[in-house]
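F.,

This is the one I mentioned.
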């Protein structure tokens, strides 16, 4: 009877742990996906929202080529292969991604190798960084241009002048 009680408690703890995991995953502000052999086997609601999908059935079974822009696909595939082999790769990186409608955007990815139902999988979280990147580009522009006239300010003038002096020096 003692073993049965311990077994019941262990099952109860496991069930509670699974419930906490599901709640945390589904309420996350980051998109979360599990990939097996380069194909999506799980995505949360935030992932669907970020990538513009309505239902998880639209993405489950699809490869990374559907969500990663061709400019960055080789990099991502290389990282995944190296990660699977146990080689060192960045755990966080930014990539150019694709929404369902083909619109490119930027996302920050955190990925790790793990196990799911006895299989080796990649577990990744995604955060849309497009707004931040646009803001950074705007700041760069503002730092060298006058907003009213659209002309280079002093900093912009010196930056452009130095670039042109270097070119003139090279071509004599």
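My design for it:
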């Amino acid at each position: 009877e003692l073993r049965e009680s311990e077994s019941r408690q262990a099952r109860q703890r496991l069930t509670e742990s699974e419930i906490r995991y599901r709640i945390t995953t589904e309420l996350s502000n980051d998109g979360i996906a599990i990939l097996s052999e380069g194909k999506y086997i799980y995505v949360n609601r935030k992932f669907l929202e970020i990538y513009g999908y309505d239902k998880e059935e639209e993405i489950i079974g699809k490869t990374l080529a559907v969500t990663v822009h061709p400019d960055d696909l080789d990099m991502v595939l290389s990282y995944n292969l190296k990660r699977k082999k146990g080689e060192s790769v960045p755990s966080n990186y930014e990539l150019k991604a694709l929404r369902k409608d083909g619109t490119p955007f930027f996302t920050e990815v955190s990925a790790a190798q793990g196990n799911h139902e006895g299989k080796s999988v990649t577990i990744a979280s995604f955060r849309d960084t497009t707004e931040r990147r646009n803001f950074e580009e705007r700041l760069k522009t503002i730092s060298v241009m006058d907003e009213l006239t659209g002309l280079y300010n002093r900093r912009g003038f010196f930056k452009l002048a130095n670039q042109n002096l270097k070119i003139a020096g090279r071509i004599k």
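Strands lie at 31-36, 39-43, 92-98, 104-116, 119-128.

Talk soon.
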